[in-house]
Amino acid sequence: MEKNTFVTLDQINEIVKTYPTPFHLYDEKGIRENARSVKEAFSWNKGFREYFAVKAEPNPFIMKILKEYGCGADCSSEAELLLSEAAGLTGSDIMFSSNDTPAEEFALAKKMGAIINLDDFTHIDYFEKNVGAFPETMSCRYNPGGVYELGNGIMDNPGDAKYGMTKDQIIEAYKILQSKGVKHFGIHAFLVSNTVTNDYYPALSKTLFELCVEIKEKTGISLEFINLSGGVGIAYRPDQTANDIAVIGKGVEKVYNEVLVPAGLGNIAIFTEMGRFMTGPYGCLVTKAIHEKHTYKEYIGVDACASNLMRPAIYKAYHHITVAGKENAPCDHKYDIVGSLCENSDKFAIDRMLPKIDIGDYLIIHDTGAHGFSMGYNYNGRLRSAELLLCEDGSVKMIRRAETLADYFATYDCFDDYKKLGK
Ligand SMILES: *Cc1c(COP(=O)(O)O)cnc(C)c1O
Questions:
Q1: CA of 158 to the centre of ligand 1 (A)
Q2: Which residues pair with 336 in a beta bridge?
Q3: pLDDT (tens digit, 9 = 90+) per residue, 200-222?
Q4: In a 3-state reduction of DSSP, which class is residue 300?
Q5: Which DSSP symbol is given to 103?
Q6: In-domain check, residue 418
Q7: Distance between CA 171 and CA 198 in Å, rounded?
Q8: Pocket of ligand 1, candidates 100, 190, 194, 204: which has the most ligand atoms within 8 Å of its Cβ, to mutate?
């Protein structure tokens, strides 16, 4: 499949008059259309709610757009909780799905009235000792262990994952929590990441729905929500077929009707915590070619680096690249597209066939709308770029400014000659 961009060279030429490259650009129209489809796909379930995984794109402008479609926020840190509150999300709008959680963060989540999703059995004791009484609603995170395999060969290894409780632990956890006054219960599991298949949520649903029936039998507790969490992937590569959320929603509905309804559990709400699927395809990193280098390979050096987008460097992740204005030119040149970090993994693409790139060309790196900007870091003193929103009316709004050296130097204020840092 062809991978199209949502921005043209003409638009980029206009944007760079105000905002220099590199920058992340987000497509408001795409985000809205997708959020609407997600809502529709699960409209068969009365209590359905998507809690957008804030870590994917922690920006209150984006969170507010998603809120219009009923989305809450999935948080796992103090900063994410505070950002959600600032975006107008609080109380049960927030799912706190953290792990290795500090007591203060549990306390903040409790104070805000967020739904707390316990990652571990020992957190019951920890919470009671360090935070106090439990809220009336609690969720627990499940890890079935072993290898989790889908029909088409996609799989992951929950048995090696640090998250969640075993089956025995989770059943015991519900009993203990009930004895401590908790009245409403939910369950959560995240077993495979970036699944490019419509089968993952339905398969996960079957696992969780059957467990719900077992929990009901063994404890008498009727869970009130089932949180399918994240993991719905996107087609980073042109040869992949994108997930169809309508098909996924129908797949979950079928399992719901087969497993939960006959067991008298037909009122359970379905929750999701998608991040990647909600914003991934609707962001791109725009960067300028500033060097070409001819040694043992052909290199194009751009003005972005792994500080702006870490996925290729740490996961060898594929991100499609379009040379703006050369969309229809033949891809007859082989390049490594590199950033400036003193780190050989700082390559956005290796041996990629692209049109001939000239200095000054703009490269559009696709699918940076989730786990893109947010994974940024400051190695080599590199600064994070601005985030811009391409609004539905075609205008461009800055939704987060670029970092400055003053931001970077701010934490050196314990250094005697801090002022010499100037900025
Ligand atoms: C990362 C994460 C998500 C979002 O995952 P995606 O793959 O972006 O959909 C949801 N829930 C939890 C607990 C996570 O850690």
A1: 14
A2: 299
A3: 999 999 999 999 999 999 999 99
A4: strand
A5: H
A6: no
A7: 29
A8: 190
